What does this fold into?
Amino acid sequence: MAEEQPEQFGRYALQSRLGQGGMAETWRAQLLGAAGVTKPVLIKKVLPEFANDTAFIEMFISEARISATLSHGNIAQVFDFGRMDGQYFLAMELVDGQPLHRVLKRAAKTGLKQMPIPLAVYIALEMCRGLHYAHSRTDEKGVPLDIVHRDISPDNVLISYEGQVKIVDFGIAKARMLRSFDTEPGIVKGKFLYFSPEQARGRTVDARTDVWATGLVLYEMLCGQHPVTGTEAAVMSRMAHGEFPSPREVRKDLPSALNEIVMRALSVEASLRYESSNAFGDELASFLHRIAPRFSTPNLAYLLRELYREDLRHQGRELVVPPTFIEELTAWRGSEASAPLLPPKPPSFGLADVPTEPLSGRGVHDANARPSAPTLEELSSGPIPWGVIIGGGLALLTALAIPLLTGTDESGTAPPGPRTLGPDTGGVSEWPGAGGRAKGTADEASPDTSGTAGSYPDATVFRLDSRRQVLRVPTSLVAFPRLDEAATYQFWMANPSDGLGSSSILEPSPRRDPRIFFLLAGEAVPSEQREGIVPRRPLPLTGIRAISLFTLGEPVEEDLASQAVFLRDSKASEELRFTFHPEPMRVSADSGLLIRGLDVRQTYVVSLTPVGDGVFLRGRAQAPATQVACLEWPSGPSVAEGATSRVQPVQFFLSESREVKVRGIQGLSCGFVDDDASDNEGEADVRITPWDPKSSKGQGSASARKAAEAKRLAIQAQRLARAGRVDDAYLVAKDCISNDKEREQPDCLLIAGDMQARLGRMEDSAEFYRAFVQQHPKHPQVARVIGLLRKQGQTLTGPLLRPPPPTSEKRK
It folds into this structure.
């Protein structure tokens, strides 16, 4: 049978029809050159029935005009454009591979519902490189062409079997060289699922629209789903207001650093996004290098080849895939969303540990870097994993002590305690109760108030310099810009945060709503109103030209959910809405004055006093500043890692008119909140005074107060134990026992025993365990503690334990 001859289409031989999309169809073809030279190409031609559709033909021609000027490794190149037999056509680069949307569907069908993190980041990185090239193109005179794709989606991203990433279809791109440069108001183009907020509103778009869409494609690859679903109107509304979960809320193993990158790209306000695709790509490249330093293009090629192995085999093609990559792919398919970040055998990627270093100057912590420690309740329902320590004899650590109290971070190093830190650096002050000298600044020491641990002076003063100790709020955190200073606004949030300083004593504790801070800009804004916390009830504001929103320090896990903040013009009744995502919108407290070495058992009174004329943050033409922001040190989720519920570090505004009581912390970082420190002058003193709770009048009976205080100390001791702060946990547990001797808290006895075991003081540990068994014989942990003591060589008599023979001296 004679072989079927390909259809001739001018200089091209059409070999096979690849598909039809909308009003055009695509063909695999060969460009026929002289002397039998051929080149594989893709022919895209308008279907005959749409040859007279003026609007579509204009868009098709515009694609040709734009694409013909682009020549980049991440953009499918156009070679030719013309008209043949009344049909317009494009001859373009034939990418031997698959579109990204098909790759994602095929991967999901084979058990890979979420794209492996390095592969997803690499694809988005390559997209950024191609888009930045298009965005930065100029004409022959150097005038920018202002090309914006406007239709970035998985359909328009091709992945080759060699691992190349190519962007296609500039059909609705906006460029200055086109006659229809400006879209008519209210007219939107593109796929509504990937519209940027400004695109959905029919507003003017620029390169940051493509940044948004690329971030959305990355979100979909990482999470295996679009952020929101529903009707076109519902999706566009929710996306335009930022009402969607962060990727880390969907995929729990996602590193915080990557979550921050994605959410910045998906900022509703274009001014908060990356200023260019190149900047977005640089962040992705930096992240990829840290987690997979040996990643290369073949890794993506191997994925495609394995997913389409059978299709390639039917074509008579066998493309090589290393066995090591197949092992990795099997591990990915078998892992759940809550599994570790990456498979345990990474020979081809060369994967490094998930980074915990700061990203773009912001502290990053991955709460999923290791499994959380079990709680006492969890341990009571299963067997105890015994551990043995050999050294000067055989000693057993309890099951609670081993997983709970290792106290090491990802590097294997134990976190420093409040009294084991290195020498002072600039802006660091030691509380004299820790055995150090209090320093107002790095250059000037305050009067000698040194002492020993547990011996507190009446008060200690720390000097704050308004030029140095500044918690700077960058302009990128402006949520409501270009406001009318003559208008009066109402300002509030939908899910209110609790007021800072509203409780009698502040201490680290679980809570529900994230605290959102604000900074007002405007010459007429009173100093006492410049910064604060977004309130529950509408707050009237006048004389403001912009509002910045932010969180202080590292947000805890529960704070990753977005919150809606509203601003309403009282006269115009126009309501503005901003969806606040805590992780990318935070201000570091690292530049504040660090006061460390506080005793976690002690309650302190903190107050603020201006020095001389006071502090001026906008020059002397305005009134002096009246408050500073303070944040617990160390802060962030790592303080309470492994806890049943996340613990929010202490945060508060300290003003001249109100003192604040704090407890349960080992340090504070305080500073002036400002967006520009160049015109600051003046100093203020932060005074810290130990407070005796016995001098205050409580409510209820003395026994009830003792029981409540003992319970509070027990919770605090557990928190310190899970954070690896063994000495502090033991001291608090001991205070708990002393506070209510009639009914010693069982948890406190257990924790005290665990801490002593962790410190190698096995005799002291056994003493606490014996007291636990004797005083709480019906406690569910009793059987296990008895078993533990038996293994420690203790003598048993009935249900109780007889103490071992006395030793020469107890270890203190």
